């Protein structure tokens, strides 16, 4: 399948500073791809080069197989939504949405039909005559989305569009963006540093770190099978156990990791690399509490935090390391209790440097 959007060897340098190392990335038609990473990871730089706001130092960008590396932004057939909304304060909602269409010299009837359709799509028809100052943050963001959607671009770029909203409104707008993506069938490239937002919205996530791509995959891939220690630590809550391989095998022939003061069986399929030390990822929801000395590792409950749907326990392990476990509210763990932990080895991941 040919890609809708493709970045081929693009890089960006500002003097001696590297904003993005040479990078390849392909986005399929209709896909929702999120560029995720901490500040300074290169995600916004990549989005700006795709949009045409910044020229790459090397490499090229193709849309539908056409080289658009040096095509000006307005002629790339893309739409862009900013975090700041960028609405014109002196224009009504209707005129804000119509602005891009008028700049493209659409007829009056085409503008009217497209604006009305876009406002209906974001459920803001009744606000058409209001001005931006009369709208809430969430409503202004809807108008920014409508303005982008009005001329039906096939590629839509969104640069942290929900960053200025509070948690409840942000979650609501995430649902709206998912709905709009399905309705439009357009290709979305979305920038965020919020891992929960990326997991919620994306078909695939491009995780970035230190001006390069760390891993690309589905949300399940990055959560269950992170390729690196950085990916394991950035996506979701993580327990990273350091240890060494035992010279002997378990009862079923499985490899054993000596870590957290215990003997931890690894998946039979775990790719064992020659190294003195290994890192095992155990997500907090994987372990269950058992009696001391009857699990893989033992520890002492150091803290108990109520989270509504579940309880999170902080454990001090026998070797002094710390481990977090999520458990059901029906359990009543107490600080100071000694417990054992057991889990399905196939719910763990052996990481490599």
UniProtKB/TrEMBL annotation:
Organism: Paraburkholderia franconis
Listed InterPro entries: AAA+_ATPase, ABC_SmlMolc_Importer, ABC_transporter-like_ATP-bd, ABC_transporter-like_CS, Mo/tungstate-bd_C_term_dom, P-loop_NTPase, Transp-assoc_OB_typ2
Protein's name according to its UniProt entry: ATP-binding cassette domain-containing protein
Transmembrane segments: none
UniProt signal peptide: none
One example of a Gene Ontology biological process annotation: quaternary ammonium group transport
Lineage: Bacteria, Pseudomonadati, Pseudomonadota, Betaproteobacteria, Burkholderiales
Domain of life: Bacteria
Entry-linked Gene3D superfamilies: 2.40.50.100, P-loop containing nucleotide triphosphate hydrolases
Cellular component GO terms held in the UniProt record: ATP-binding cassette (ABC) transporter complex
Record has Cell inner membrane as a keyword: yes
Residue span, ABC transporter domain: 5-235
GO molecular function: ATP binding; ATP hydrolysis activity; transmembrane transporter activity
Keywords, in A-Z order: ATP-binding, Cell inner membrane, Cell membrane, Membrane, Nucleotide-binding, Transport
UniProt key word Membrane: yes
